Amino acid sequence: MNSYQKYIRNFSIIAHIDHGKSTLADRIIEKTGLVSQREMKEQFLDNMELERERGITIKLQTTRLVYKAKDGNEYIFNLIDTPGHVDFTYEVSRSLAACEGAVLVVDATQGVEAQTLANVYLALDEDLEILPTLNKIDLPSARPDEIKAEVEDVIGIDASEAPLVSAKEGIGIEDLLEEIVHKIPAPSGEVDGKLKALIFDSYYDNYKGVVIYTRIFDGKVKTGDFIRLMNTGKKYEVTEVGIYSPGPVACRELKAGEVGYICASIKRVADARVGDTITLDENPTEKPLPGYKKVQPMVYCGIYPAEGEKYENVKDALEKLQVNDAAFHFEPETSTALGFGFRCGFLGLLHMEIIVERLEREFDLAVITTSPSVIYKVVLTNGDIEMVQNPSNLPDPTDIDHIEEPIVKADIMIPKDYVGNIMEICQERRGKLIHMEYITETRVQLHYEMPLNEVIYDFFDALKSKTRGYGSLDYEFLRYEKSNVVKMDVLLNKDLVDAFSMIVHESKAYARGRFVCSKLKEVIPMHQFEVPIQAAIGQKVIARETVRAYRKDVIAKCYGGDISRKKKLLEKQKEGKKRMRQFGTVEVPQEAFTAVLKYDENK
Amino acid sequence: MMKINRKKGPAGLYIHIPFCVKKCGYCDFLSFGECDEEIQKKYAESLIAELSLYRGQNIKCDTIFIGGGTPSLLRQEHIAKILEAAEAAFCVAEKAEVSLEANPGTLSRDKLRAYRKAGVNRLSIGVQSMDDGMLSFMGRIHSSRDFTENFQAAREAGFSNINVDLMFGMPGQSRQMWRDSLEQVLALEPEHISFYSLQLEEGTTFSRMYREGSIDLPPAEEDRAMYHEGIRMLREAGYHHYEISNCAKPGFECQHNLKYWSFDEYYGAGLGAHAFLYDKGRSCNVSDFDAYFQKIGRGELPADPDGYSYETQTDLMGEYVFTALRKTEGLDMEDFRRTFGENFFSVYEDQRQTIRAYVKSGHLALNGTYLALTEKGIDISNEIMAEFV
């Protein structure tokens, strides 16, 4: 080991959502004096507004801290934050690969959760030293001894010396910092070896191009070097290297064991993929680092400009988002109901929700999203295989031999009192119970195999609702499996609205059809005529509802000088005439598209 | 950009009180039930502060309308102070019409006397129906008898200009029931009667019940028959039908509401209040209490940044037409020309054929420089008005 490496600690903080990871990161930053308390925005590392609001970390943040330990030495801490959601498992695994250790934060009131475990397994896969830490120790309901025992039982690591902290109150942070110094190993690696560096994140900067977050394993890199990204095979000249502390600070070079950033005039984030290995073009290393994979979208939906919104604006915004998000895909598509829009691919539901919310907030756009869909493997009678993620593109039924759908392994952790409820909702969603285990006397983990199609609709909402928020879920793709799925269409006033079409399992079609019709009945406004709502498979109508007519040629009261409503009404009447001439159709409010997806406890 | 050549007359001032004892089943106006005295007091103080922001600008005003909600729910001192603030900030004409909306169940002799003393000279009482069963179904908090007592008390307190609001086309209402209500109100001889056909607004209890099928509405023909019968009865009783939904004894037309239909200027104060000014166009105040209090606290006008409608000359013309057509005298094409500097028929060249057809079918009438809806035309007023927006 080189002498400088002795004083470096590279670590992540891993936790279940809400267990206080970001707050803890804030305290550590504050304690090491990097950012003064006054400058400290709450949850420093969650710098997207959305992240702060939802209390989850989406994009990784990395920062270098200097800690003066009790032994009198100054240590460099590279804190690599990890995204806190199941959709981003791969990104988490790559950030962990950049570390020697991980601080495992467990909520002292709630104990081990499904994602805690999922993250621990990822960390163990990378051979990391795991430092259990109990948070929220200030709460009266904290049960540190029980939870320590739980960590030992469930995870099988020694928790007897786990620091007891309260990130919120700033209790126990010093102890934790000392633990990091003593328990987490210093990095090793040959400074004079061939460059081998891991990309664990990247983002797009308007001035610098793509900024790569990297961990150097061997060798060194400096401005002017020509680097090669081993998996994509592309070559670039380094324009800047530096560290985050917490803003970017350029430095002379990055060397083995260090964490920092590299800029090399790369145009798109997709060209600097997470997990790829950086080496020098002239003197490359023989083998890339293990674990690289190209992340693929698992969930697709249509995104359309809402009424009055411009197609071009949505396109520009999607392009801007894509520059920064290698996992997000989109391409143009058209819907007869919604006009020109985009088919978009996401890692999972949360990823989708985030993109949609960012479109609305950061770009101030009004968009309509259609029912999410997974990717079906359609085997045709002639033996060809088509991958279909848009229900409208499903080939003619007579050409289809069979359809296969993605199955995931879903691990659900719940208090034991809810087992009955949860088994019921899993069963309703075609889940197959693989096994069930008692984590502690009161907590149970259920291992299911479930069609992803069932998970993406409302499973997470149902799980939360049925367990009063105590249930947690982690899932990963397993395999494709032959399945009896059909395309269900929705007709409004006899016209097919393609944006509502969805692929469902045959056994669920009737229930789904009834649900969609009854939801639409609630949100579709009354028209001058009766509006029949029908769900159909092919020509066969499987559910029907009707929106009553409200024929009155109203004489709106223009109250208190507010003529705007009356004007809108008149404009609508005028427009309506036009539209009816063109399509003979029904006015569908935007909320209808989300209403049919929402979990309804009473359904 | 808009261009209004018209000479400014005195403006109107609308003051909104967004409180009610409880929300009625059909109402979607900006009003909140069950608000405590604390917030009412804070609101009244904020209103006073808002009005004071207009001080020193020498704005002439000859109508004030305190509407709601239920303004009569406020303590009388608040009303007096609000009017005081309005008079301190605006140049209010000596003979200005000062209206206040009141609901039976919130009135008392003391309150009525206090309103008179504070300068209110026109009272608008919402009874909506004289059928107690109907009143309770509508979610009103009073009986027909409460109303009659309040009406007489208002007379005793010195109100010689009273409006009564009625509604028709209610679920389960027969023509006879409507006639009875109207007759009983006519017996009290109010100076002004407003009568509105029930509208189902999205989000109200009535709208939900109708969707579910738990209530029905009289068929359209029945609704129209009630309307025309109402007008006949009012005429026979000596009222002048001067606007689609309003009748008055001659000389008692509501001057404030006429400003809305005559393209006159008006200011709005209070939560969600609307305004129309020639140099600023149409705007409205924020409709959220916190935002309202915050802006007032900072000494700003509480205008809603999203409440400004950018309006083209064409927009304004369309508004002029459909508001003017609400008056039975109709739209004065000469005034239109003076206001916009263009001839009515050259602006609405494309509609000329349609207008002619409506005149021929007896839905529109041309009378000198005036174009007006006929009583028959009122039944399809939206269809006709939509031609101009």
Automatic annotation (TrEMBL), chain A:
Top EC class, one word: hydrolase
PROSITE patterns reported in the protein's UniProt record: G_TR_1, G_TR_2
Keyword terms of this UniProt record: Cell membrane, Elongation factor, GTP-binding, Hydrolase, Membrane, Nucleotide-binding, Protein biosynthesis
Superkingdom of origin organism: Bacteria
Localization: Cell membrane
InterPro entries: EF-4 (IPR006297), EFG_II (IPR041095), EFG_III/V (IPR035647), EFG_V-like (IPR000640), EFTu-like_2 (IPR004161), G_TR_CS (IPR031157), LepA_C_sf (IPR038363), LepA_CTD (IPR013842)
Keyword Nucleotide-binding: yes
Residues in Tr-type G domain copies: 6-188
GO molecular function, one term: hydrolase activity
Residues that, per the record, bind GTP: 18-23, 135-138
Enzyme Commission number, as recorded: 3.6.5.n1
Membrane topology, as annotated: Peripheral membrane protein
Catalytic activity annotation: GTP + H2O = GDP + phosphate + H(+)
Keyword Membrane: yes
Biological role stated in the UniProt entry: Required for accurate and efficient protein synthesis under certain stress conditions. May act as a fidelity factor of the translation reaction, by catalyzing a one-codon backward translocation of tRNAs on improperly translocated ribosomes. Back-translocation proceeds from a post-translocation (POST) complex to a pre-translocation (PRE) complex, thus giving elongation factor G a second chance to translocate the tRNAs correctly. Binds to ribosomes in a GTP-dependent manner.
Similarity comment: Belongs to the TRAFAC class translation factor GTPase superfamily. Classic translation factor GTPase family. LepA subfamily.
Descriptive protein name: Elongation factor 4
Species name: Anaerovorax odorimutans
